Amino acid sequence: MVATSFTPIASLLGGAMIGLSAILLMWATGRIAGVSGIAARLFPPYEDGEFAGRLAFVAGLIAAPVLVRLVTGSLPVQTIAAGTPMLIVAGLLTGFGAVWGSGCTSGHGVCGLSRLSVRSLVATITFMATGVATVFVIRHWS
Amino acid sequence: MTILVQFAIGLLFGLGLIVSGMSNPAKVLNFLDLGGIPAGTWDASLALVMAGAVAVTFAGFRHVLKLARPFFAERFYVPTRSDIDSKIIVGPAIFGIGWGLAGFCPGPALTALGFGSTSAVIFVAAMCAGMVLARVIAQLQSATRIAAPVHPLES
After folding, report:
1. Which of A6, A15, A129, B122 is the most buried (most CB within 10 A)?
2. ipTM of this predicted structure
3. Reported pTM
4. How many CB atoms lie within 10 A of CB A63?
């Protein structure tokens, strides 16, 4: 594993930016800023005419590091320890589970908890628990 | 105009992920690693990202949802369900396993594409496949449910 340091101020500030983004999306489009829901609906079947807006939101997510690099000349460290087979399995499970459970860390964790949704609380506790269990098995059982 | 606004909102979300450190899977995994507490390697940062995001969103939603309608849309599309079915447990349980394996959830994974990382491309491709698979299965299930005649005593 790669050691990382506790960054309370930056994490609170970044979290607040994510929250502001969720508020703005609700204000502008009336939609929950759930990244898995937005990304999944880029694929058929299309139920509404919101494709372009969703694509623009995702393009914004991808453009963020490009902007940071343009302005500051560098990017923060990003360490991805998983190898290709692990990334494929992890990606499949993450994508499938997020859609099956109607949301991910942003949709349930941020927007759902903020709406005091019981379903989102159950979802958030569940994915936190299996996430912790998975890391425990990988790091401390093998 | 709407599209430009949505791009800007996505950009702000992505910048939040980078500033908070959540674009780095190592930080996420070190938060999920409670076994690292005794060793002193536990990174509590993700808890503060969630706290900051929920505090701001909670305050903001209260005001925004009092508006007659969104600025660019006819109405608000806020989920109304409150029942606890098996999908709301099984889905997040599977999601959490995938999250714990690589340290990526959907937002940071998409933002990682902009870092120019090949690993992110592989993860996002698999994630999209998983999303499509879940939607196809859900659709097949609902199609079967509509097609099957309901016994009068069960309805």
Report:
1. A15
2. 0.97
3. 0.95
4. 21
